[in-house]
Structure formats: structure tokens, C-alpha cells
Amino acid sequence: MTKKLFLSISVATALAFATSPAALAQSKGGQQFLKKAIEGNLAEVQMGKLAQEMGTRDGVRSFGKQLEQDHAAANDKASAAASEAGLTPPTEPNKKQKAEYDRMSKLSGDKFDRTFVRHMVADHKKDIKEYQQEAKKNDAASGYAKDALPTLEKHLQAAQSLEGRGTTGSR
């Protein structure tokens, strides 16, 4: 009887922990997603600032400001989700993102505008796919992904609009 009771308690405890929000938040995949999302947000904030400084078109500069503001706010939410998941948030973009920033910072004029907009379209398409996949899960990262998707989609539409206009507009 004691063995059965002990086994029952052990199984019940294991099930309770396996389905608790804390246990779900600790998933390795969720932590990896949040790490990548935070690095991406930090990179987008920097790219947004760069577009404001180096963009020659009003639309590019305005989009840069939107990126900076929206991704800074998203990063606050992602960092909170990371803390909930027991992850220490990264404090800077990854090496690839830094290299892309460095490459963009060497461009100027219309070449900067065109390259920046193309990069934002491609980057946001890739991010939306990753966020959609994460949003289907059930952990701290999925909640963040669901909340962030509408903003990413808005950014993609804005970038595609700039791309469609050939980044034309007032200087």
C-alpha cells in the first residue's frame, strides 16, 4: 500500500510540474526563441537608429523611427518573458546582426535606402515565420510571440510599401 501511495504521489507531482507554467516556461526551445528574439529586437533598434541617421528619404527615416520604438517596447516584453523562463536576456545583437549593421553603416544615399528596405522585408518575412511557429506552442515564449506578431506584420507591410515605391518620396 505504501509503495502504491508513494508511486501515486510521485506520478501526480511529476504531472503537476510537467504542466505547470513554470515548467513550460523553462523549455529549451522557448529559451532559444527568446534569446534570438531579444537579439533581433536589439538589432532592429540599432538599424532603426541607423535609418534615421542615414536614410535619404522621409519614408525610410520614419520607418526607422517606428522600428526603434516598436522593437524597444517588444524587447521589454521579451526580456520579461525571458526572466519568467529563467533566462538571462542578451544585451546585444548576435555577430551576424552586428556584421549586417556594419555593412549597412558603410552605405549612403539611395543605395542605403534600397539596401535597408530590402533587408527589412527579408528579415521581417523570416521573423514572422519563426514567430508563427513559436506562437503555436504553450510556454512563456509563445505568449510573447503571439503578442509581437501584429507589429512584425505591420513592419513588413511598411517595408514592402517602401520597396514598392522604390523608396521614393520626399527627401
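The record above closes out task 2.4. Task 2.5 opens with a second protein, given below.
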Amino acid sequence: MKQNKTVDQEIELTADATNRIAQDLAVILSDTYILYVKTQNFHWNVTDPRFYALHKMLEEQYEELAEATDEIAERIRMIGHRSPAGLRQFLEMGTLEDSPNDLSGNQMLEQLLRDHDTIIRNLRQKIEEFIDLDDQGSGDLLIQRLRAHEKTAWMLRSHLKNI
């Protein structure tokens, strides 16, 4: 298969590189959006002796994820591609699953932690790939996302200690 070596003069990346990066970013966007909705759902529906603390923490987390979805979608547009949008599309493209109803506070936190850990693993893999494709901008975006997910995972683990 012949590789497309055409370089977009505005962003100085090959069409092959931007296609691959846009596809990978679409999966990351989908996972981020799924996690956003799940976190917001848990914020609304948590019942736990630690209600107020969990309610506030989850609010901060879903607000951060909402901003992240915008940044990721805009990066896809910056490299010349259309961003996916729509719940069905996100669920089809993403690697995360929707959550069942009626979870305990700890079950909610455990599920969020698993999802953040999944995204962390995926981001670590893609950072190197993006930099190898000479897209430092997308690589930097993923490094920022990695730090945010690592911090959130740390906070979730802290709430689950000794339980």
C-alpha cells in the first residue's frame, strides 16, 4: 500500500499522519466523553455517608472532563479532520462501557478508577506514537490529559483506601 507523503503546508504533517492521529484522538475523545457522562451521572446519583465530599469531587471531575472533550475535539479540527459527535458514535468508537444503575458509592469510585486507568494506559501508548509522527502538539495534549487522569486516579484511590 502506497503511503501518502503529501504534507499539509499549514500544519506540516502528512495526510497519513493526520488520518492516523485523528482516528486515535477520536477514540480518546469518545472515552473522555463516556467518562464525562458517567462521572456526571455518579455526581447526580451518589448516595453514601460521604455524600457531600463525593458529590463535590465528582462535580470537579466531570467539569474537568467537559473541558477536555472540547480540547480534544478542537485538536482533531486543527489537524484538518471532522470530530465525532453523538452518543451512539462515542459508544461505538470508545473502549469504555456505560455503567449500570444503582451502584454504591464505592462501586462508582471503583468503576471510575478502572476507566481512568484504562485511559492512562491508552494515552501512554499514543503519546510516543504521536511524537514519532512529528505531531508534538497532539503529543503535548495527551501529556496534559495523562497528568489529569493520573491525578484523578490518585484521588479516587485515596477515597478507596482501607475500605
